[in-house]
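B., you asked whether I could sanity-check this one before it goes into the benchmark set. Here's the sequence:
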Amino acid sequence: MLAPGLARAIEAIPVDPDQPKIDITAKGELYEGRGDRLQIETAPGPDGYIGRMAVQASTPGTNPGWLVFALSNPTDERIVRWLVAPRYTLANSGVLRPELDAPRIAAVTPSLGFRPEPLKSDRGDMFRLNLEPGQTVTFAAELSSLKVPRLTLWDPHFYQAKQQDRMLFNGVLLGITGLLAIFLTAIFAANHRAIFPATALIAWAALIYFCVDFGFWNKLFPVGPDRTAVYRAAAEAGLAASLVLFLYTFLRIGLWHVWIRTMFWGWIAAQFALIVVAIIDPQTASGLARASTILIAGIGTGLIAYFALRGQDRAMSLIPSWMLLIVWLFGASMIVLGKLSGEVVVSGLVAGLVLIIVLLGFTVTQFAFRTGGGAVSLGPPSLVQMKSLAVDGSGTHVFQWHAGRDLVTVSNDVEMELGLDPGSLNVTVEEFLQHMHASDRERFRLMLWSLQEKQGGELRTDFRMRRTTAPISGTIRPRRAQRECASARCVGLMRDVTSLKRSHERLMHDAVHDSLTGLPNRELFMDRLQGAITRAAEGQSHRPTVIFIDIDRFKNVNKSFGLVIGDSMLLTLGRRLGRHLNPQDTLARLGGDQFAILLISDSDPHHVATLAERVRRALRTPMKISAKEIILTASIGIVVHDGSQVSAQDMLRDGEIAMLRAKRGGADRIEIFNPAMRGEDESRLPLESELRMALDRQQLQVFYQPITRLASNQLAGFEALLRWDHPTRGRLAAEDFIPLAEESGLIVDLGSYVLGQALEEAASWHKVLPRDRDPLFVSVNVSSRQLFRQDMVQEIRLMLARESVPKGTLKLEITESLVMENPERAVEILTWLKTFGASLALDDFGTGYSSLSYLHRFPFDTIKVDRSLVRDSSLNGQTPLILRSVIALAHELGKEVVAEGVETQADASYLRSIGCEFGQGYYYGEPMAAKDVAALLAALASHRKRKQRERARDEPATPSGLEVQAPTQPALPELPGPSAATSGVT
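And here's what the prediction gave me:
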């Protein structure tokens, strides 16, 4: 039994002088875990003697591995060999924590002779072995790494020749890669596209990797072999990061969603961070770089396939290069995992990487400089090329007419568009005319003859070409060719203008027809009516008759069912009306819910009346909407031309007057115009113009009626009331012109005017008569058009901020019927107004359908009881149950009550007794002008100051050093009596 650490003798390897290299690893014996000292039996010599040798580790305590082998020299000459252990080989290096550059052999100990001489090399551990003639020597190689290196015994001359060939091959690859990197970097100056620096970065990263792998890095920079692993790992990480950056740039990932762009930039930053990790842990950085390369290949393949299926040119042009990269990665994986080995395989892998970079550079360059035709153009296009591109891009085609040869030549694209055989239009003029529309042939022939007679000129015309489906329009603009006047050769352009003609026709149709019903609009109706009046005046036709139709309460239909249902009902009404007309008559939609009929086929009054009755009955026919039958009625006015209507506008106005008379008499009526109606409505238009002028010139005046707190008989605020001092009609109250303003749309401007004036006056009131508690307020009525206007809330907010009045100064009075038009929208708007500091009052409560179910939802502060309830209580002389119930209901909801129509002291006393907070009426004052309000407030302010001075004088003196607090005094009434409120008011 052998002693511990003792190994048996091994078989010697004969060294043939003609053999260039011998693989020692496969023929040696490996010893591991034998400690720092190894005892082995030497190989038997020529005499068969087996000796023993002991080997000591060069560094105590390392417990290294040993590779033992024996060499014999059977010749009679001395043999010199180099023992080589590469510091790094790609084959079987691993993926996650690969074996990078590291020492492999610490020392080689022979059984005979001198210790082998170490040779200096940056690429591996090399030792010089000398074998004497007929000698057998056993060698023990101390391993520096856990992984068994590949030991090869080389003939020195063959090894040097092999290295020279490898250096030449590596130099060629370095040169190709370096030139490509410089080219891609330099071309960026000529074509500023990001794909060039992104591709150049791959080339530069590969160049650095080659320099490290080929051993040139240590020659370029003073770097020791012990740092080669750091640079190798950093180069691999940089190559992987450059691939990610190239995908991001070339596929334009930055144009995608923000989160995808952010994710890619994070990935790129993580890849470049591996370069820093390589300084700390080269193995980990290299392993992560190799693993991420597989991930890059997978994600890149998915992105390229996705974009290619969507038709992106960039992705489709990258497919060949990326497929080659996938094949290259598969081969690299086989080599790294040890499935393939050999110098030829590794060299082929390096050459494949260079080929991929070259193909990427070619793809990028071709795509960047590719023009519309697919060619590569490195210089700016000439003027002729730009003109040719402009003609092709404009959709025009070249036309040529040679009068001398009577030949017409056009572009082949025209024949393709018309579906003709090539060369069909390159014919004589007569044959060319046969392809044109028959109506355009003679005109076109005359134009060509005119050009030939004048020996030049310019032809601009539209004509139609015949084909199997539809005619096509074209425009020819030939000019006389330079220096060819004698032959009258014309060259010009021809283009298809069919879509343009159709657009013009559509625009002309839409300009004079209603977009919803397709019926003639007001402009076309007025034109036809004017023509009918002219022909009737000349005695060429019957007298025209106009039937003016207005649908009753159609706005309620839009509010109840929506605009879509309303439009469909208008379409139905238009079709019903059209069934009762003759082809000579005209049915038009004037706008909104108004229609008009022009009758010129018959002027018999009896027939006209019969037609109007049929129209009325047709409109009354029920329409089924959402399983409900809707019956619409119309107010119809009829006017027959009697010679007094000079223009179509006059006649249509008379028909509208008759319609308005029918509407005032009730729905579903027919009225025939007579001249007496004209005087009744002529005053309406001048009044509207005068109201508009008065608003522009600020001739309207705001009056203020006092509102008193009943419990203390104290002035609480005012209600703003608009008055118009008309130059001829005198002072007009709001009810005299507000309905007109609502119909004409002036109510919005009037409301804004009153709000501005009232807030401006209220700001001055607080300066004259300041109150810390319960400041004076001003109430302003709001109309429906104001409340539901989109910018109304913002307008009031800006007014309150500009005047800087206390919160609650502005009180908006809104009628109950107004908020019930759209309760949900009203709640939203009122909540906003209250948030901005405006108080809200429900006006005219009790006059309409009091919707108690919605009352608690509206954010009103005050309920204003109509004057009719107060007046009824005074006349009956008994306890009004309704008034008491309304006030009790308001208090239950937490709201204050303002009673209008307080005319007597008895009214005020009774309202005070049942808990009503505020009173308004002529008992406390009539509406007064702003200057009268200012005088009243000034008198109240002076009265307050006088009372304060009297209290200060009546108070006893306070001893020195003592502080006495006076008892709280009751508030003095600021309205001593009704006479003070009405003083100065006429």
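One thing to flag: Residues 714 and 974 are 5 Å apart (CA to CA). Otherwise nothing jumped out at me.
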